[in-house]
Write a structure and sequence with these properties.
Belongs to the acyl-CoA dehydrogenase family. The protein is of the alpha+beta class. The protein has 19 helices and 12 strands. The strands form 3 sheets. Strands 3, 4, 5, 6, 7, 10, 11 and 12 form an 8-stranded mixed β-sheet that branches. It has a two-stranded antiparallel ribbon with strand order 1-2. The protein is globular and about 85 Å long. The model has no long low-confidence stretch (mean pLDDT 96).
């Protein structure tokens, strides 16, 4: 029976027939790998997901972690799953060999990890945060910090978090108040509180490595005065042994609509519950230079944003596959034109409106998966660039696509989950079936790691204008290459290519008109609409790329690809015309609305 987590056939198509990732083995960084090792990793991840992660997904949702004032307790299957993943040496699968990593392409690692997210996004979250934490310290930390904290994370002994938000500041990091007071020995002591910290406390690992944003007294105001610190739950000796408890205290757990299996915490630093060495404050180790915390943390945040997007895709994908299986098996009704009411009922997949909902889901999740893996391949090109021009192009494309790869799947794969519930009918709204949990879990993804609105401001306010519009030009060039290939193929592909060509030219013209107006407030007021239109055009490009890869190939799989691509071009891409009209008009409805009018 086919898996209802992800489609291995689709992943193989995207990785090997479209992106041709086996060609990465020609680059020095990946030379020790082969298509066979890539396939083995995907197979292993699928097996771990099915055996250790999926079985407790509903159980961890029903029995979320609890806190008795001193200890967090959770179901034992979470620890078993994490130990199985760590035991397979997969935490460091994409990291450098000198750190003990397998130096796999990020494209393979992302595809493999998607199996875990589809199986159990909460348990997978502990690993995703640990990987991103380790990558940041490996890039900016000292050799001692790498040895003391990164290497134990890569073996699964330690886990990691990111501590940004505070109750009074939310996403406005300029307003954080956590402070780091320097000590004569060159260390720091931290005081403050952090909110919404996923994986912030538990008994799953020997230690938890917190990456904490804080301000050193006397530093510049706002975000320019923020520094980054490693603050472990337990101090670590020179010999790597876990020692004295640091003054990091769990104040309480947040109880969420979804993602219930991963602890979400309020952490207090330096409140005096523990006094390492007899001094007040939580011991912290500065990462890199003072006041560079935001730029450093964005290394982790951008990785996490791509991870959040992939998590949203995985949840949308598994919901789609489960609703597809249900639609094949559920008999109900007869064709609208049926005359014999005594005839057997037909599977609901035969009804046109059910096929519409399934096609919509397929177009969202397979289009988003293509986008996520395309971005992962850009990361691989960055890590193995063979020229400065290649590196620059990959960086420009990844910069402009990261907010899209985070937010578009978070919006539209959530809609796929919504449609999966609808396909199930009343059963989809019950806890008996998985799809209601997938919707609840996915509802977090438009919020964390930067809300939809923050991503839209990043895209429109920074990414499309950076370096004189270089990122937008790079995207246009890449899309036009696909359009030219479609034109050369002729027929329907040429027609779809022309439709995409018109859409991206209009997007570019509207973007220039918005900023050329000089009314920046009006231009940015509808940034969320811009992100949605931009995302739809980008995913249409991903679909054209897939259709080019499927061109001339026969079989149900390829026919399904072509039909889903047609659906996106006929039902979804035309929506952007009205959105671009609104954006070009520089509509001020939201700006002119007054609080008293609500």
């Amino acid at each position: 029976m086919k898996s209802t987590l992800l489609s291995r056939r689709d992943l193989d198509f995207l990785l090997f027939e479209w992106l041709r990732i086996d060609e990465l083995t020609k680059r020095e960084r990946f030379a020790e790998h082969s298509r066979e090792t890539f396939a083995d990793v995907l197979e292993l991840c699928e097996q771990l997901a099915e055996r250790y992660f999926a079985p407790h997904n509903k159980k961890s949702d029903a029995h979320e972690p609890s806190f008795d004032g001193s200890t967090v307790t959770m179901i034992p299957e979470v620890k078993e799953a994490l130990e199985a993943f760590a035991g397979a040496d997969l935490i460091a699968m994409a990291m450098d060999q000198e750190l003990g990593g397998a130096q796999l392409p990020a494209t393979v690692a992302q595809a493999g990890f998607a199996w875990l997210s589809a199986a159990n996004v909460s348990t997978a979250g502990y690993v995703m945060l640990t990987m991103a934490n380790a990558n940041l310290i490996a890039k900016f930390g000292t050799a001692d910090q790498v040895a003391r904290f990164v290497k134990p994370m890569l073996t699964g002994r330690f886990s990691g978090t990111m501590c940004l938000s505070e109750t009074q500041a939310g996403s406005s990091l300029a307003d954080i108040t956590t402070r780091a007071e320097p000590r004569d020995d060159g260390g720091y002591r931290l005081f403050g509180s952090k909110m919404w910290i996923s994986g912030g406390d538990h008994e799953l690992t020997d230690n938890i490595v917190h990456l904490v944003l804080a301000k050193i007294p006397g530093g510049p105001p706002g975000t320019k005065g923020i520094s980054l610190f490693i603050v472990p739950k337990y101090l670590v000796g020179d010999d790597g042994a876990v020692g004295e408890r640091n003054d990091v205290v769990l104040a309480g757990l947040n109880h969420k609509m979804g993602y219930r299996g991963i602890t979400n915490t309020v952490l207090n630093f330096g409140e005096g519950a523990f006094r390492p060495g007899g001094e007040p404050g939580a011991v912290g180790y500065l990462v890199g230079e003072p006041h560079r915390g935001i730029s450093q943390m964005f290394h982790m945040m951008n990785e996490a944003r791509l991870g959040v997007g992939m998590g949203a895709i995985a949840l949308g994908y598994t919901g789609y596959l489960k609703s597809l299986r249900y639609a094949r098996e559920r008999p109900q009704g007869r064709p609208p034109t049926a005359k014999d009411l005594a005839a057997p009922q037909i599977p609901i997949i035969e009804h046109a409106d059910v096929k519409r909902m399934l096609l919509a889901q397929k177009s969202y999740v397979e289009g988003a998966m293509a986008l996520a893996l395309y971005c992962a391949r850009l990361v691989d090109v960055q890590h193995s660039a063979e020229s400065s021009d290649e590196l620059d192009e990959a960086t420009l494309l990844l910069d402009i696509l990261t907010p899209v790869a985070k937010s578009w799947p978070s919006q539209w794969c959530l809609e796929a989950n919504n449609l999966a519930i609808q396909v199930h009918g009343g059963y989809g709204y019950t806890r008996e079936y998985d799809v209601e949990q997938h919707y609840r879990d996915n509802r977090l993804n438009p919020i964390h790691e930067g809300t939809h609105g923050i991503q839209s401001l990043d895209l429109l306010g920074r990414k499309v204008t950076q370096r004189g519009g270089a990122s937008l030009r790079a995207l246009n060039d890449a899309v036009f290459q696909s359009v030219h290939a479609a034109d050369a193929a002729g027929g329907e592909l040429a027609e779809l290519g022309a439709q995409l060509d018109a859409a991206i030219r209009r997007l570019t013209a509207v973007t220039m008109a918005m900023f050329g107006s000089g009314d920046i407030d009006a231009a940015l007021a509808n940034s969320a609409v811009y992100l949605e239109a931009f995302g739809h055009i980008t995913v249409a490009w991903m679909w054209l790329e897939q259709l080019l890869a499927a061109h001339g190939k026969a079989g149900d799989f390829y026919d399904g690809k072509r039909q889903a691509g047609r659906y996106f071009f006929r039902y979804e891409l035309p929506k952007t015309a009205a959105q671009l009209d609104l954006l070009q008009s520089l509509d001020r409805t939201t700006l002119e609305m007054r609080p008293d009018w609500f």
